[in-house]
Structures are given as structure tokens and as C-alpha cells.
Amino acid sequence: MAGGRALVVVNETVSGEQLRSSLLSHIGNEVSEVFVLAPALADSALKHTMGDVDDAIEPARQRLEATLAELRKADLRAEGEVGDSDPIQAIGDEILKFDPERIIVVAHRDEEGAFAEKGLLEQAERDFDLPVLELVVDRSAEPNVLDVKSSEPVAGRRRAGSPPTTGRRCRGARWAGSWWRSSARWRSACSPPRASPIRAAAATTRKGASAPKPWRRS
User: Fold this and answer.
1) Is residue 53 within 8 Å of 172, Cβ to Cβ?
2) Which of 67, 91, 209, 217 has the smallest number of CB atoms closer than 10 Å to its CB?
3) Is 210 helix (H, G, I), strand (E, B) or coil?
């Protein structure tokens, strides 16, 4: 479809002839706009869980800039940004803003990838009603494409961009300091619920204390 949009998620830098050619061939001639997302991947399960991704931001930025340069050399209209440390959350955020027709993920094998990369295609297939293609690569200066996997949208899946669980949403948000953290979406998902005076009074009554009497004009 001419004028189409593709979201490209890079957990590895796009460099070297093989990976670059494979990515461009899967993007295809019908795509006119590409948005590149570089998740800030924590280098351990503990850091990912604790949202400790400060050290992951700069490598993600370098990955983003190098990939954008490669795509622009191929005369593609490409923009991008560093995203959430959870790739699924990051994809959901960018779907809301960019509205792509397809998603292409450059990722590592489970045994070589970051903690948040494990089972990424299966999670995307479950969560997004969009076709997802995954280029599985190794870790090298010029990555080799080891496998190509894909999923197709299926009716009944959660619509793209609807919120994941609170735990996923909050992990990794600490580093962002961006529009997302200041948004109502972040506040509603990550802020503790406000205590309700009505519920508090009811709870006190259930414990045996008297409920406060309503004020009346004398």
C-alpha cells in the first residue's frame, strides 16, 4: 500500500549489508514513512524489574541514530526516539502516536538477548492487532540474520495501543522524564489510588466504631 507506515523496533543496531538489505526488503517499496524505536533495554532482569535503566539510555540513543542514518541513506523518510525499557510498552506508546500498518522488530535470540527481549514476538502477537515481523540476529559488529519470524493480526486481540498491565506500564517509566511520565495515562496507572473518605468511614464503622454523624444546622 503506497504511503504506508512501518514501526521498526531495534534491539540491535542496523548495520552491515546483510541486516540492512533484509530490513529494507521487508519494509518494502509501499512504505513511505518509518518510525524507529530503540527501547532502553536494561542489561539484567533485576535492573529491568527495578526500573534502573539510566545506563541503558545512551546505548539506545546510539542504536537509534546509527539505524536512522542507514535508513536515510536508502532514501527512506525516517524519524525515531528512545523508548520505554519494556519493548511491548514502548511499542504500544508509539502505535498511539505513529499509527503504523506494520511492526518490524530486530531482536536477539532468547539466549543472547536482554531480559525484556525474551518471548517478544509472542507478546506482540498477543497484545497488538497488527502484523509483526521479527528479524532474529546475533550480536556482532555487522549482525547476521539468523531467522525471520512473523505473526498476523487475529480478530479478538487487544487493540493496538490499549494499556497493558500496571506493573508493565510503571517499570522503566522512571528514566523517561518525558511527555509520557507527565501524562494522565502515567498518573492513572502508576500513582497510588487516593483514599476515599466515604470508604474510610465505612471501614471504620465495620470495625465497630460509630460512623460520623452528619452536620445539621442548629
Assistant:
1) yes
2) 217
3) coil
